[in-house]
Design a protein that fits this description.
With 210 residues, the chain is α/β, with parallel strands linked by helices. The protein has seven helices and eight strands; from the N terminus they run E-H-H-H-H-H-E-E-E-E-E-H-E-E-H.
C-alpha cells in the first residue's frame, strides 16, 4: 500500500479517518488558504516575482470567490500572508533550487511512501533546506512527515548525510516558523519503521470498510 508523505501524520493520528478519506471518490476543493499557499510556492520557486505574485494572488482570489465585503477582507489577509512569506525567504537567505521532488520510497515490508516533497531551497552555506507551509498547529514531537522530507531531500540532492538537510515549518497564519530542524539518523530510521506500522494499520482499516 502507498501513502503520500503529506498523509503520514494524519494517518498516524487517525488511521480510520485516513482510510475513509482514501475511500472517498470526491475531491474536496481548497479555499483561500490553498490558493494563497500555491501562490507562495510560485513565488518561492521563482515562477513569478513578488510584484507579479501579488497581482496573481488578487486575480485568483477575486475570480475564484464571490466579491463581497467579507471576502475582500480575506483577500487583504492573504496578501499579508504572501508578504510575510516573502520576508521570511529574504530574512533566512533561502533560494529555491527545485520545485519539488517526486517521492518514491519503498519500505522494508513493501509499503510505499509517495507524493511530492515540499519545495527545496539552499541556504547561504549552499546546504539543502525544505520549507513546509501550514496553517495549523504542528506536532514536532510525533511528526513522521518532516523526517521523511529530510531523508528524501538528502537522497534527491545527493547530500553527504541526511543530517546536512534542515527543514523549516512556516505557519502562514501568524508568520511564525521554527528554527530549522535536522533529525538524527536514528530518528529517521525509527520513523521509517513507524511509517510501515502506520500504513499497515490504514490498510487494515480499509479492508474493514470494504
Amino acid at each position: 500500500m502507498k501513502l503520500s508523505c503529506r498523509q503520514l501524520d494524519f494517518a498516524q493520528e487517525n488511521p480510520k479517518g485516513m482510510a475513509q478519506i482514501l475511500k472517498q471518490s470526491n475531491i474536496i476543493k481548497g479555499g483561500f488558504n490553498k490558493v494563497t499557499h500555491e501562490v507562495c510556492y510560485s513565488l518561492a520557486k521563482g515562477i513569478v516575482n513578488y510584484d507579479d505574485a501579488k497581482r496573481l494572488l488578487e486575480i485568483r482570489l477575486r475570480d475564484t470567490f464571490k466579491d463581497n465585503k467579507a471576502n475582500r477582507r480575506r483577500r487583504e489577509l492573504c496578501q499579508i500572508v504572501l508578504h510575510n512569506f516573502y520576508t521570511f525567504l529574504i530574512e533566512e537567505g533561502l533560494t529555491c533550487i527545485l520545485n519539488y521532488s517526486e517521492i518514491d520510497l519503498r519500505l522494508e515490508d513493501g509499503h510505499m511512501i509517495g507524493g511530492h516533497t515540499c519545495a527545496i531551497f539552499k541556504d547561504l552555506n549552499g546546504n539543502p533546506v525544505g520549507v513546509v507551509l501550514t496553517d495549523k498547529e504542528f506536532d514536532f514531537g510525533n511528526t513522521l512527515r518532516l523526517p521523511i522530507e529530510q531523508y528524501w531531500i538528502a537522497r534527491k540532492m545527493k547530500a553527504s548525510s541526511p543530517s546536512v538537510v534542515k527543514v523549516f515549518v512556516y505557519n502562514t497564519l501568524d508568520h511564525s516558523y521554527n528554527k530549522p530542524i535536522s533529525f538524527s539518523d536514528e530518528r529517521i530510521q525509527y520513523v521509517l519503521q513507524r511509517c510501515s506500522e502506520v500504513i499497515t494499520t490504514v490498510e487494515i482499516e480499509l479492508k474493514e470498510i470494504g
